[in-house]
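Hi all, a correction to my earlier message: I attached the wrong file for ABC-2 type transporter transmembrane domain-containing protein. Here's the right sequence:
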Amino acid sequence: QTALSETTGLLFFTTALYTVPPVFQMLAVAPAVVARVSKEYLSGMYQVHTFVVAMTLSSTITAVIWAPVWQMITYTLADLGRDPVALLGMQLTLALNVLTMRILGFFLAMVVPGAALNVVIANLFVQMCMLTNRFYTKLPSWLQWITVMSIPRFTLRALLKIEYSWRDMFEVSPMHGSYIPAELTGTFQVTRERQMNVMESPNDAPPAGEMLAMAAISLGFLLLFALELTYQVWRLVVGYSQQEGLFDKCLPYVSVAEPDPGEEARAQAAMSQDSEVSYRGRTRAQSRANAGSLGALSDQSHEMFFPYE
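and the right structure:
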């Protein structure tokens, strides 16, 4: 049972590792995303929904790839994953967790653009999710509704369902060699008390429900994110159109002074006179320099041919 507690703690740490950082990463990059989409939309490159689909597909590859790397290293050392199918199920669960938290971070950044405020709200939300995933405390009945939005709770419960079954037996005392079913261990008794429902014999508990719940939350908030991003871009377009309309209204009242032909002639004459004067000055200076050079050359020649004079 000691090994069971340690592996459960590792699964909890994995859940926390891929729950907290994605939210704050999206809060940091969201302003740049909005600025880029607005600029490229105004230039007519693409529509907003096209960007949302492309960003989701690209981030699915770049952001989710680190979860399998983590699992292959740590789960191999901890001897987790009873078979390749279970390991793939764990990787899919973590991938859904990462995508869901990233989309939630994007949506929060759209609704609350202020960096000082959205970081506080994100911290409160993430901590609430971590506190309600059964690892710390038991929630009262009137607070159970929070677990509906607790993404780490879905993730941890799915990981436990994939790794353990009610058919598993755990050694109670190595000295006596006695075993008890998994449901009777202290770890899974706590999960039952905290309404996690990881296992219940004689029925298997597949993790499909938790995966579908995270997928539904991801799609729902992705749609809300696309709508909010479209609204913000529309506001920028409206503001730009209003500025253009105001400029067009003010343009007829702006008078442009026509140039005076006499003034232009005088300016050209002054410029030509200045050019002529400067040219004469440069010519005289060049003549003096040439004369000085010739004088110095004649003196050197005289000294060369008449050194004792």
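Sorry for the mix-up. The CA atoms of residues 199 and 265 lie 98 Å apart.
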